[in-house]
Design a protein that fits this description.
The protein is α/β, with parallel strands linked by helices. The chain folds into 2 domains: 1-105, Formyl transferase, N-terminal domain (Rossmann fold, 3-Layer(aba) Sandwich), CATH 3.40.50; 114-138 and 151-216, 3-Layer(aba) Sandwich (Rossmann fold). The protein is 32% helix and 26% strand. The protein has 6 helices and 11 strands. The chain has helices spanning 17-27, 46-53, 69-81, 99-104, 125-131, 167-190; strands at residues 6-12, 33-40, 58-60, 87-90, 109-113, 136-143, 153-160, 194-197, 200-203, 206-207, 212-215. The strands form 2 sheets. An 8-stranded mixed β-sheet has the order 3-2-1-4-5-6-7-11, sandwiched between helices. It has a 3-stranded antiparallel β-sheet with strand order 8-9-10. α1 (17-27) packs parallel to α6 (167-190). The chain is globular and about 50 Å long. The structure holds 5-O-phosphono-beta-D-ribofuranosylamine. 5-O-phosphono-beta-D-ribofuranosylamine (GRF) binds next to α1, β5 and α6.
């Protein structure tokens, strides 16, 4: 029954394969999440088509129409709050959030970043891992704070880098990992096992100084 589920807003800018992973798992009951709205800052994002197909309400506001970051963020929040989300899920949302927005939703925003954080915040993570000669790569779910890709880490999915791997091959393997670990971390939140407290992530009452790490 949707009343008992955690109400999530999913924010995207692009293709939305992570969004699709959430939709699939919400539909078949693998996660106790009710996706109440999908938001995109790009009206042509393919993820909005995924929302339409799944009959999920969606909203798009173009950031270019706003004079500054915070005024855009306040409009986004005003729309999202009409849906009373318990949790915000950033899934390829390519916007830096204003401090106002982060405070407004403190402890209720998750992001996924395609690297084993704290390595490689920012862009081009696959190429940077290859360039560095790393043995492993992956993706990390974390709480969002004002520090870009720097909030408390929750769950990392790790893969071994194989000889012959390219940015493209890493991208597709990392995405497959993301589609497992991101719904899993959100489910922990839905079950009340995961919380943000004292600027840290806590799972089952234990402070996570390192993320839970799963090998794929
Ligand atoms: C993912 O790789 C995620 O790590 C990053 O943006 C990408 C979104 O991909 N934050 P998709 O739109 O979900 O396919």
């Amino acid at each position: 029954m949707s009343e008992t589920k955690t109400r999530v807003a999913i924010l995207i800018s692009g293709s939305g394969t992570n969004l699709q992973a959430f939709i699939d798992r919400a539909i078949d009951g693998r996660v106790d999440l009710d996706i109440v709205v999908v938001f995109s800052n790009r009206v042509d994002a393919y993820g909005l088509e995924r929302a339409r197909k799944a009959h999920i309400p969606w909203v798009s506001i173009t950031h270019a129409d706003y004079p500054d970051r915070e005024s855009f963020d306040r409009s986004v929040a005003a729309v999202l709050d009409e849906y009373a989300p318990d949790l915000l899920i950033l899934a390829g949302f390519m916007r830096i959030l204003s401090p106002w927005f982060v405070r407004h939703y403190e402890g209720r925003v998750l992001n996924i970043h395609p690297a084993l954080l704290p390595k490689y915040p920012g862009l081009n993570t696959h190429a940077r891992a290859l360039e560095a000669g790393d043995s492993h790569h992956g993706s990390t779910v974390h709480f969002v704070t004002e520090e870009l890709d720097g909030g408390p880490r929750i769950l990392a999915g790790r893969i071994a880098i194989e000889e012959g791997d390219t940015s493209d091959s890493l991208n597709s393997r990392v995405q497959a990992v993301e589609h497992e670990i991101y719904p899993q971390a959100a489910q922990w939140f839905a079950e009340g096992r995961l919380e943000f407290r004292d600027a840290a992530a806590w799972l089952d009452g234990k402070r996570l100084d390192e993320p839970v790490t799963e090998d794929f």
